[in-house]
Amino acid sequence: MSQLCEDKELLEEFLAEATDLLDNVDDDLITLEKDPGNLELLNRVFRAIHSVKGNASFLDFELLVAITHKTEDVLNRLRKEELLLTPEVMDVIMEAVGLVKVLLRDIKREEIQDRPIEGTITRLAEILVALAPPPSSSDPSPPDMETGAPAPSVVRVVETESAPGFAPELPKAVTSEPVRKAPPAGETSPDEPTDKSTVRVDVKRIDDLINQVGELVLERNRMLQLHTEYQNGLDNSAFDEEFAKLAKRINFVTSELQAQVLKMRLIPVGNVFKKFPRIVRNLSRDLGKLVNLQIFGEDTELDRSVVDEISDPLTHLIRNALDHGLELPDERLAAGKQPGGTIVLSARHEGNRIIISLKDDGRGIDTERVAAKALEKGLITQEQLAGISQQEIFDLIFLPGFSTRDSASDLSGRGVGMDVVRTNIKKLNGIIEIKSAKGTGSEFILKLPLTLAIIQSLLVDVSGETYSIPLSAIIETLRVRQDEFHTIGGRKVLPQRHAALPLLNLAQAFAVADEVTDREYCYVVVVGAAEKRLGLLVTRLLGQQEVAIKSLGASLSNVPGIAGSTIMGDGRVALIIDPAKLIEFGEVRGGLRHRHH
To answer: Beta 573-577 vs 465-470: how paired, if at all?
Structure first.
C-alpha cells in the first residue's frame, strides 16, 4: 500500500465518504441474504464498494483497491444473476467488507501496514471460479457507475467498524483456509477501532447553537446596561423589576444553550446496534440455532461517551442470549415452541435516563443450576444461599469467575462475560435489572444516564453538609422511623419487599457530626449500581437540581465514595456522591451482602 496521502483535507474527505458509504453495508447484506431477489439493495451495496474502490485507486491505496476490486467482481456477478447468493458466498463477502473497514481504520490512524489479504482475495476468486463462468467483460461496472457517490451533506458520528466476527468456515470446495474467528468473550480484537475523538454534527445543530450564543450576548449587553443605570442612580424599585426580568431571561437562554451544547455530543444508539445483526447471523450459524433479531428505538440519542461504553456490555449480553438463552431448534420444538428463537433489542428515553432492553424467548435462567454452580465455585456459602431471594440468585451471574459452562469455548465458559457487563455499567453509574422465567425467556434491562458531563441530581443534607446524588442512580426515596431498622450480622438493614436493604449512614461514612440517629424519622435514598442496591441515610432531602461535574484534582481524586464536586448557587462547593464506590465501601464495612429477610 502507498504512503499516506499528503493532502490531509483530501484524505479526510475520502475517509468521511468511505465511512458513510460503508456505514449500512452490514445491515444491507443481512437483509439481502433474507431477500436475495432485492436488486435495489444489491445495487446499493455494489455502488458503495465500487465508490470506495474508485476513490482508493485515485489515492493509490493498493491493498484497499485489491480487496474492493475482487469484492466488486463477486457483487457484479450477483447483480447479473450469474451467481447464486448462498450463505457461504455471503460469509466471504462479509469477511471482505470487514477487511475493507480494517484497512480504512489503518489509514485513519496513519498506521499503514501490509495486512494479509491474500486469503480473502483467494476465497473471492474461488467463488467466481467454482460457482460461475468467467465474465465476458473485464470491467464489471456499467458506465453510469464510474463516479463515486457524493458524500452526504448532513452528518453524524464518524464510526469505524471492527473486523468481522464469528465468521464460520466455508466448505472445502470454496475456501482454501479457515475464516478468522472472533476473539473469545472478554478479550479485545486487535482490529477493533479505538479512535473516539471525532464527532460529526448536523449543520442545523451548529446554527441553533450560534443563535443561542447570540441571545446570550444580547442578555450580557442588557446586564451591563442595567449595571450602568444602577450606578447612575436608577430607582431601586425599577432596578428590582428589571433585574428580575433579566435573571429569568438569562436562565432561559442558558438552559437553551446548555441543551444545544449537549445535543452536539448526542448520537443515535443505532451506531452501536447496527453491528449486532451481523454478530447474530454469524454466531447463530456457528451454534446451529435459528434466530430472529428485532431492533427498536435505534434513533434514540445519548451522549457519545455513554455510547462508547455500552458496546462491550451489549455484545456480551447478545452472546449470552444466543449461547445460553436460546435453545436449539429440536429443543424448542420439544418444548412446544417455534424452532426459531427471537431476540428483541430496544432503546427508549425515560426521564433523564435511557432504558436499553435485551429480551429473548429462550430457556430462561435456571436458578437452581446457578445456585449450585455458585456453591461449587466457592462464590457463595450454603448459609448465604439459604437466605437470598430469587432476584439475588439472578445477580450471582455477575460475580467474577461465574459460569455455568463446564468447559471453556470460543464463546463462553471463562466466567468473564457478565462481569464485564457489570464493570462497564457501574462505571456509568447505571443500573442492571434481570427478569426471567424458566422455560419462557429472560430480559436484561440497562438504565443509563443520558450524559456524564451535566447531571440531574438530588441534593441532600447530611448533618449540615450538602451532598449531590446522581438522579440516574436513585431508585427511590423513603421517609422511615428509626425503629423500623433491623440489625443483621452487625449491619443495619431495612426490611423492604421481602428482602433486607443494606443501609449506610453517610454521616458516619464521611466522618461528619451524626444528627441522623438522633432523629425519630430520617430519610433513606435507595441507590443502585449495576445489580446491587444500598440505602443511604440522610438528614433531609433538599430538592432536585441540575449540576455540572467538576474534578477535585489529582490530590483528591481517590476519595472513597466521591465522584467530583459542583458549585452551588451561593458559591459553596457540594461533593457529588459516587453510588458504585459507596456500595463497595458499604459491603466492606458491613461485611454482608443484600440478603433475604
So the answer is: parallel
Predicted local distance difference test score (pLDDT) of residue 524: 92
Dihedral angle, C-alpha 295, 300, 303, 304, nearest 10 °? 50
Angstrom distances, CA of residue 370 to CA of 45, 82, 402, 444 = 45, 52, 9, 16
Phi, psi of 511 (to 5 degrees): 55, 50
Report the SS3 class of residue 345: strand
Count CB neighbours of 278 within 10 A: 23
DSSP 417-470: HHHHHHHHHHHTT-EEEEEEETTTEEEEEEEEES-SSEEEEEEEEETTEEEEEE
Whose CA is closest to 418, among 405, 435, 400?
Answer: 400
Q: How much is the pLDDT for 361?
A: 92
- Residue 530 per-residue DSSP state: B
SS3 367: helix
AA identity, residue 476:
E
- Residue tagged 451495496 (cell numbers): 45
pLDDT higher than threshold 60 for residue 512: yes
Q: Check if the beta carbon of residue 515 is closer than 8 Å to that of residue 507.
A: yes
Q: CATH says 270-449 is which class? A: alpha beta
Amino acid at 312: D
Q: Are 536 and 494 in contact (CB under 8 A)?
A: no
Q: What per-residue confidence (pLDDT) applies to 518?
A: 67
Kindly report the three-state secondary structure assignment for every residue of 295-329: EECCCCEEEHHHHHHHHHHHHHHHHHHHHHHCCCH
Instruction: Dig out the grid coordinates for 280 from the structure.
Output: 447474530
Average pLDDT, the chain: 77
| Cβ–Cβ < 8 Å for 172, 94 | no
Share of the chain above pLDDT 70, in %: 80
DSSP per residue over 533-576, as a string? EEEEEESEEEEEEEEE-B---GGGTT-TTEEEEEE-TTS-EEEE
Instruction: Extract the C-alpha cell encoding 276.
Output: 449486532
Domain positions in the chain: 8-145, 203-267, 270-449, 454-590
pLDDT tens digits along 465-491: 899 998 888 889 999 888 888 887 778
CA distance 22 to 307: 20
CA nearest neighbour of 195 among 113, 112, 104: 104
Predicted confidence (pLDDT) at residue 160 exceeds the cutoff of 70: no
Q: In the numeric block, which cell numbers belong to residue 418? A: 457478565
**Long-range pairs of 513-520 with CB within 8 A, sequence gap ≥ 24:** 513/463, 513/464, 514/463, 515/463, 515/464, 515/539, 516/462, 516/463, 517/482, 519/482, 520/481, 520/482
When pLDDT is averaged across residues 70-81 and rounded to a whole number, the result is 87
DSSP strand pairing (454-462 vs 266-268): unpaired
CA 45 → CA 14, 24, 84, 85, 382, distances in Å? Answer: 18, 9, 16, 14, 57
Task: Provide the CATH topology of domain 8-145.
Answer: Four Helix Bundle (Hemerythrin (Met), subunit A) (1.20.120)
User: Does CATH number 2.40.50.180 belong to domain 454-590?
Assistant: yes
Measured CA to CA, the distance from residue 56 to residue 62 in angstroms comes to 8
How far lies 575's CA from each of 456, 504, 540, 556, 560, in Å? 14, 17, 16, 12, 12
Mean pLDDT lowest among 305-314, 510-519, 534-543: 510-519
